[in-house]
């Protein structure tokens, strides 16, 4: 090949790559923007190839600065605001005021249909079967180390329906009843540790986020996987490190080749993901040896029993592969401890702020359970007020602040057409803090709003969705509520809680809503 041919070839390839880059960064998203606007979907103006990411970052910095200034000027618990939508997701709050409850914003060159209108959501979801919803492809690279390719959070279509069908029986009331004893045992151990620390003192300051996260990790390890707390803590630490690696630093989600800018964090997350896979695979292989020999009541055991009998509810279902088992274990270990740990953390903070509700719950616990060391599973339904508190905590501080979908076909909602392939971001926390849905006391802690009303007086049933909606509602909802009631019952009848002077209220969106600086509380024995 002559030098001239080489130069021409190099120029052609360079121009072709340049064209691909320009098309990906500008031409293609502009065409998509025009199509969405013609379909009646407005929103903030994007600046490609970053879309609205720069605006989101600047608004968040400004909101955090304002929140810090207010915290420094007044540190009393009475001054704490529960309006986390404005402080932690300020871009959504501001854009909602400007563009309404349905609009399009852009993460890089990826458009997201933002929805905080429960009626629009109802109409949209009513025309799509649960299994026919997709998951935004743009998030897959970030999510795979944490949930794998085949976790329930990652799959769709018939594969999702098959997994859901196989897993459902593990959370039956019969199996939950067996898990209750392990929950009591782990909580009692934590209470004993606190009591020992209080031997020579009348009070103690503890970071409740750390305490209950460790407890929830131990409980999920025992009840779902039959492993000891030491191995459970190893998995928990690795998952926590992965979460920090993936979500704490700036992610150029949706920006063409943006993953190259965060290659270090991505490689670290993948390494942690592989280490977690190896641990879970060894657990699975060990459990396979006792299948058929010992009765199985936890999630992993029941899934492994399914390898011998592929019938679920009388129907033939293809068994889960080893890869699918590993990914489902990752999904449930992370989701199973995260949801309950955060709900208990925020509950203890709120009860410390509102001691009246500590007293209300103690009276109810005494009436329903008494002083029994063991808690009968059937008693938990009698803890009505505790159920109100649980619902109110998940309204103010939802463990799942959003739901994400991707359209797999064009969807008509009134005069709006949602094109096939559109990413959808359902702002759960936005609806939970919507004054027009809940009234002027929307940002106040009032568990009594759920007295006799499953939706807490919300003006639209789909305005309250702490566990998702439709057929994709959280499969572990009853497990989470049972663990919550058991743990809270045991600790509230032994200790009282007040907010520590060192507490800094800084809820942070970090895949879920987490305390930015822990939750230090003063613990006193009763």
Briefly characterize the structure:
It is built from 18 helices and 13 strands. The chain is α+β, with helices and mostly antiparallel strands.
What does this 3D model show about the protein?
The chain is built from 18 helices and 13 strands. Helix 8 (173-197) runs parallel beside helix 18 (477-492), helix 9 crosses helix 10 (229-247) and helix 10 packs antiparallel against helix 11. It is of the alpha+beta class and 526 residues long. The protein is 53% helix and 10% strand. The chain has a four-stranded mixed beta sheet with strand order 1-2-9-6, with helices on both faces. The chain has a three-stranded antiparallel beta sheet with strand order 3-13-10. A two-stranded antiparallel sheet has the order 4-5. The longest helix is centred in the first third of the chain and has 36 residues, at 3-38. The N and C termini lie far apart (88 Å). Pfam families: p450. It is found in: Membrane. Its cofactor is heme. Belongs to the cytochrome P450 family. Heme binds at residue 474.
Overall 3D shape: globular
For the termini, the CA-CA separation is 88 Å
Main sheet characteristics: 4 strands, mixed
What's the count of strands?
Answer: 13
Mean of all residue-level pLDDT scores: 87
> What would you call the quaternary organization?
single chain
Measured by DSSP, the beta-strand proportion falls in 5-15%
Total of helices: 18
Radius of gyration: 25 Å
Low-confidence stretches: none
